[in-house]
Amino acid sequence: MPQPSVRPISSFQKLHQTLSEYQGGWIFRGHSSTEWKLWPKVGRNPNCVAQESSMFESWKLRAVEYLAQRPGSDWEWLAIAQHHGLATRLLDWTRNPLNALWFAVCEKGTGDAVLFAAKFEPRFSQSIDRRSETGEENHPMTFEGLGIYRPSGVVPRIIRQSGLFTVHGPPDRVLEDEPGVVRVREIRISSTYREKLRSELDFYGVNASSLFPDLDNLSSHLNWTVERGELRE
Prior knowledge:
By secondary structure, the chain is of the alpha+beta class. Helices cover 33% and strands 16% of the residues. The chain has a 3-stranded antiparallel beta sheet with strand order 1-3-6. A 3-stranded antiparallel beta sheet has the order 2-5-4. 33% of the residues are buried.
C-alpha cells in the first residue's frame, strides 16, 4: 500500500514543493475520497468481471450508430467506451498533476482528497504494444499484467487532459498491490483546503471548461464561478 504524506497539504506553496519531487515518468490520478482504491470500474464488481467481454462486444454493436468514424482497433474502442462511462479494465490517469488535482477536489467532500502518483519500475514495459511479434493485434480482453495504454486522438478530451490509461489484466488487479511492478505514492489534500485549491486551480486555467471543452461543462464552470462570486469578464 502507498504511504500517505505525513500531513495533509493545506497550501499551494507546500503542494508545489511536494510535486517538484515527481518529475520524469510519473503519472497522476485524483480521488475525492481516501477510501477509494486504484482499480478499474469493471474490477470492482464480480458480475462485471465475469461478463466483461460480452459487455464490451455488446457496447460496440450498439455504439457504432453514434460514432462519425469507426475506431481503428479494439484498444480505441475500449478507450471510447471508458470515456463514455462503460465499466472497463482501464483506469484514467494524466501526465499533468494539476489536472489530477482538479478531479480530486471538483466535488464537495467532508474528508481529505488524494492525489496519487505512480511510476512503473524500469524492468517492466511501460507501454502496451497493440501488435504482437507476428503483426497481429493484441486484444485488450486477453491482456495479462499491468501496463500503460496511450491512445491516439480518438477522444479529444483525452488529449486536452494529457490523459492515458493503466490497463489491468485481470481487471480486478489493484495497482497498490503491485509494489514490484509500480511505485505508488499518496499525497493527501486537507479537507479544509479542498475548496480553496479548486479556486487556485481555476486561476491557473484548470477547470471543468478546460478539461471538458463542451457547452455543458462551460455552463457548469460558469455556474460555479457565479456561486462563488468570482466571475471574471
